[in-house]
């Protein structure tokens, strides 16, 4: 996984100048942010991570008086963008909207050029979200049992946002649990995977609700189940996979905000406070729920423990299914 370095040379010179004793407030929140903040999205534009980052970034910009510039760096189920952030200057001017694949990548890529936990300063979880199992309308199935039965007699393909991503692993878990098979077609993000499914290049997928709900409501895709243990409150008519004949199935995903390790604690604290304020506003909570996301604010330490537990959970599933990276 390689990234272009010239930017970092210039950025390092700027940071070195900013760190001179004359500035006085380099390690504190001070006037932070006093210039635009790069908000890395480790997936292409249009996916759930991108949509959420743009929404939160806009609100943060309004509150803090600086632009949060979205920088899409897709590839390797989010690992390319994560590497960029891990190796960026820890000055608060590079942050990342991480997706659940950040946890699975820890096992999927045994030689990652960064540590998924220790090379990052956790800021806060943002949302926890179920995924929706969606099929193309041309597929003659209306529930999980019918999908399983159909796939046992005819070939069916499914798309994902990359090998080892939560949508991929959720489908692999479903295949193993229900005893059937489908052909996996990985893409570089949810957006291109959804575009392929809308064009009937693949027939099924687990997709984050923020992306799948509009297509389900329009009839361009058919939602047949959600991946969490309980039904989602704004989609009461969509059953869970567990109640559709696969007991115990539970595969939610999450989004959270991180910065490079050694980012000054005062800056992390300021970002956390502002993110919490954004997520706790009534209009934001309502919007996120309507789009299939449950707002969750955590302390940095809570986020770290959550991530470590999620890494352990997906490690078991990856080893069980034999999932391999792209």
Topology:
Layout (H helix, E strand, L loop, with lengths): L5 H13 L18 E5 L6 H17 L3 E5 L6 H8 L7 E6 L1 H8 L11 E10 L1 E5 L8 H8 L5 E4 L5 H13 L4 E4 L3 H9 L5 E5 H10 L3 E5 L26 E8 L4 H15 L2 H9 L3 E2 L4 H22 L5
Parallel strand pairs: 1-2, 1-3, 6-7, 6-8
Antiparallel strand pairs: 3-10, 4-10, 4-11, 5-8, 5-9
Helix pairs in contact: 2-9, 4-11, 6-11
Molecular structure report:
The chain is an alpha/beta fold and 326 residues long. The chain contains 11 helices and 11 strands. The chain has helices at 6-18, 48-64, 79-86, 101-108, 144-151, 166-178, 190-198, 209-218, 265-279, 282-290, 300-321; strands at residues 37-41, 68-72, 94-99, 120-129, 131-135, 157-160, 183-186, 204-208, 222-226, 253-260, 294-295. β1 (37-41), α2 and β2 form a beta-alpha-beta unit. α2 (48-64) crosses α9 and α4 crosses α11. The model is unreliable at 1-26 (pLDDT under 50).
* CATH architecture name of the largest domain: 3-Layer(aba) Sandwich
Q: Unreliable segments (pLDDT under 50, ≥5 consecutive)? A: 1-26
Number of helices: 11
* CATH class descriptor of the largest domain: Alpha Beta
**Rounded radius of gyration (Å):** 20 Å
Care to count the β-strands?
11
Report how far the terminal alpha carbons are from each other: 12 Å
Strand order of the largest sheet: 2-1-3-10-4-11
Encode the helix/strand succession as letters: HEHEHEHEEHEHEHEHEEHHEH
* Amount of helix: 40-55%
Q: Quick check: average pLDDT?
A: 89
CATH topology category name of the largest domain: D-Maltodextrin-Binding Protein, domain 2
CATH superfamily label of the largest domain: Bordetella uptake gene, domain 1
